[in-house]
Design a protein that fits this description.
This protein is of the alpha+beta class and about 180 residues long. It has 4 helices and 9 strands, in the order E-E-E-H-E-E-E-H-H-E-E-E-H. About 20% of the residues are buried. It binds FE2/S2 (inorganic) cluster.
Length: about 180
């Protein structure tokens, strides 16, 4: 049987981020990019999957760097991304008027054992990436009485409780709470 030969070329594309496509298990699989009125689906490299999800919002302008593999004909190709850089915020994101707030992070025994310090670091990093450092602070607290679900946070205002958030969900959580347009 003939073996299939792939040829690959590097690519660098700039367009508007339209969101992710997930695998059935919830892991990121591809990203959707709007380029010249055409939607492209670009597979994400394994290492990139872990770090993406922070700070990207639908409508952001991004640069995607990767490899394009041709399988036989010029029209039959796959795109794989190795690097994604945000170029600018989307216009409807209103990053300049975030809501003021505070994140209450439990710092007591069960939460500490289950990664409250790592969560603190991830929250801080995400706050900076979303440009929220002047409006959202983190306050360490005593037990929030949900120790089995540790580590725990409460988003203020609104008292939204959240237990053990996945790193890839933190940006969405903060964006929804502090950057969503006011009703
Ligand atoms: S130790 Fe964190 S909720 Fe109890």
């Amino acid at each position: 049987m003939d073996s299939v030969h792939y040829q690959s070329l590097s690519f660098q594309l700039e367009g508007q981020f339209l969101g992710f496509i997930n695998k059935p298990n919830g892991q990121l699989k591809s990203l959707r990019l709007m380029l010249n009125d055409q939607e492209l689906h670009i597979k994400l490299d394994k290492e990139l999957r872990g770090s993406l999800g922070y700070g990207l919002a639908v409508g952001d302008w991004i640069q995607v760097v990767g490899k394009q593999k041709f399988k036989g004909s010029f029209n039959d190709f796959k795109l794989k991304a190795f690097q994604v850089n945000r170029l600018s915020y989307s216009l409807d994101r209103s990053p300049s008027c975030p809501k003021k707030g505070k994140i209450l992070l439990c710092n007591k025994s069960d939460c500490a054992k289950n990664g409250s310090e790592e969560l603190y670091q991830a929250l801080q990093k995400t706050i900076c990436r979303l440009g929220l450092e002047d409006s959202v602070t983190i306050q360490k607290t005593s037990c929030q009485k949900r120790c089995k679900k540790a580590p725990n946070i409460i988003l203020m205002p609104g008292k939204e409780k959240c237990s053990n958030p996945r790193p890839q969900n933190i940006a969405n959580l903060l964006r929804d709470h502090y950057l969503a347009p006011m009703d």
